[in-house]
Amino acid sequence: MKIPVGSGPVRLSLVESEDEESVRTVVRTLLADRCASDDVAAASDGRHGLSAPLWRSLAVDLGLAGLLVPEEAGGAGAGAREAGTVLEELGSAVAPVPFLTSAVIATSALVHLMSAESADQHAVRDTLAAAASGGSVLTLLLPWSTDPSGPVFTVREEPDGLRGEATPVAGADAGTFLVPALGADGAGLWLVDRAAVQVTPAVALDMTRPLATVRLDGAPARLVVRGPAAEEAVRTGLLTGAGVLASEQVGLAQWCLAETVSYLTVRRQFGRVVGGFQAIKHRLADLHIAVEGARAAARYAAATLADEPDDAPVAVAVAASVCGEVAVRAAEECVQLHGGIGMTWEHPAHLRLKRAVADQVALGTPVRHRARLGGLVGIVPDGECR
Amino acid sequence: MTVDKLCARVAELLRTYPPATTDASVFHRAQFDAGLAWVHFPEGLGGLGLARDLQDVVDTELRAVGAPVNPAGHVGIGVGMAAPTILAFGTPEQRSRYLRPLWLGEEVWCQLFSEPGAGSDLAAVATRAVREGGHWVVNGQKVWTSSAHVARFAILLARTDPEVPKHRGLSYFILDMSAPGVEVRPLRQITGEAEFNEVFLTDVRMPDTARLGAVGDGWKVANATLSSERVAIGGDQARRESGMISKVAELWREHPEVRGAAVHDRVMERWVAAEVFRLTGARLRQRLATGAPGFEGAAMKVMFADLAQSISLLELELDPDAALLYDDWALVRPASVDFLSRGPGYRYLRAKGNSIEGGTSEVLRTIVAERVLGLPGEARVDKDVPWKKVPR
User: Fold this and answer.
1) Range(s) of the domain holding residue A317
2) What is the mean pLDDT of residues A297-317?
3) B263 in helix, strand or coil?
4) Distance between CA atoms of B247 and B341, rounded to whole angstroms?
5) Considering CB atoms only, which of A282, A288, A297 is closest to B276?
6) What is the ipTM of this complex?
7) Does residue B12 carry a catalytic annotation?
8) Residues of B in contact with A286 (CB under 8 A)
9) From its phi and psi, is residue B32 left (phi > 0), alpha (psi between -120 and 50) or beta?
10) Which residues in chain B are classed under CATH 2.40.110.10?
11) What integer pLDDT is reported at residue B236 of this predicted model?
């Protein structure tokens, strides 16, 4: 069995560059000013007042909507490393913005099509330009739990338009849906305006990433591409999304660890600082070790997506299977080690716990990623091994 | 010195001593004298006073032309622990006496630190060194000493003043292992082999010139040695699916009878954990190259121990018939640990030591919690008490 790529010592940089750190600082500063926990928590009571203005600032003022769009198409021409850095900060703050769904997943699918001859380049470039300027928000019409090798056709192309339903869809407050559909002429990828679909918002466990059921009943649509390129584009979007979601999970886990350490160095019981008890110290040391492992895996996934795409499927599967679990563990430890206050609505720990649990399912559960990874490296459950 | 100039120096060595026609020991002496043994050491001591990572440039160039590898130069207590300590604390005479034969492997070194009563609490060592004129007389027992049976010299931590608190009464010495009164006995482990020894020291006389660092400064000197050990443990550069996980992967691929849907995810969990460990090590090395703080070596070692133990246990479970057998209980004296050439039972048993040797995982977790996370220190009931008054 030959392991084709990524088998030598690691050559890609796993350390944050100065450019990435300056992106981080800008995003962090804006979030500290504009994304207060109380406002984030209000989303669960149906008050979404924070989201639109915050996204406008991130998308337009900082230009993050076009981060992954090539310069020739009106964007910043950055890559997955920068997107990962942004997501660490967005995950840390559990910011309720559609960066991942629109500026990463849907955008990566369309950017992939810029080099596909069969694609309608006007449709691709118009849509990317509108998204990069922050003028429109996109989302890929698929259940949010779809992993990069999962089924991607939930919608049918009929003579009178697109028909079908996807649920639960993340980022369903988007203005434009990118819809993979199967029809008599094979696979296609379509653009559908929000006005043409029926969106039924769901009550989500993590209300900071709104979910909805989206129905198409003969919706009019603009064709972007037909044939194998349609599915390739969707899978590129999902793979990129799963790869940088790992960075969001690392950002979230780091927040939980830092917040817990900081609380436990002041909280006193039995006349002592609680963080001085060895039972607590060792749990936090283990959590730190796990977070550092997750960080290395997430950075490697982003680095391969940017610079060594042949190894990206393995790297993403590794990161996705480990970072989701570490984020949930960090959030659980954060709630537990805060004691009673961690169980309250007032304390921001619950926002991270809910996001962490939802993120662990998003774009494929750890078990599914490991199953996929087994196929990639020739360790399969039954039958013949390659 | 630029990389170009360094490469030119390597080329000059290869021109003067063509590896194909030069005896390996002659080549290595020339390599040392050209400052290409460990380039971060000073000139005249095998180095050129360059950054540590430039040694990779030299080694890559030498490997490329098939120059003889110096195994003694890259493993072991000598290069990993004794050498950096001698460099940091040794006198000019000590440096020029010991470093060259050490790197060349002509003189093997061992470490006389741990004792039956001083494991994790290393500063509690009870081996006494008493001054008699220009000499020291040593009495005590050391344990877990690898290579003691072949070593020419040892780095020795001994108590020179029992009247002061434990950290302050220690001194650090270079012990001649051939001196009268040094007795080495093999220490058999749960694997059947004896990698380590017990060393009994009875009225062993050392000259005062064998001391490394000031009298009473032994703890400071020992800490320099130990931080080198942890970097050495956490810092090797691995390939994907290398180490213990390679055995599990091989078993899975070549033996269909071990495969099962239920156990597949557990195998993949370990595979992922091994890859995460590899990536974490790579990231740590990249950060150390830019001067980031070094306590993360403790974190790496905890991660490694957990990984080795969980993989080797799963390997036993995967292949139950093999798990009931053992390859060989004979008392052998391996020069180094080779997990991969032995059976699964050996791997499992030997991996139990990974969370004990070089700092237990418990002590290392405490280090991570205090040094990296900034949590409060443990209560130290013996801190300000004269060593001889501490209950033991």
Assistant:
1) 231-377
2) 97
3) helix
4) 10
5) A297
6) 0.95
7) no
8) 302, 365
9) alpha
10) 109-222
11) 52
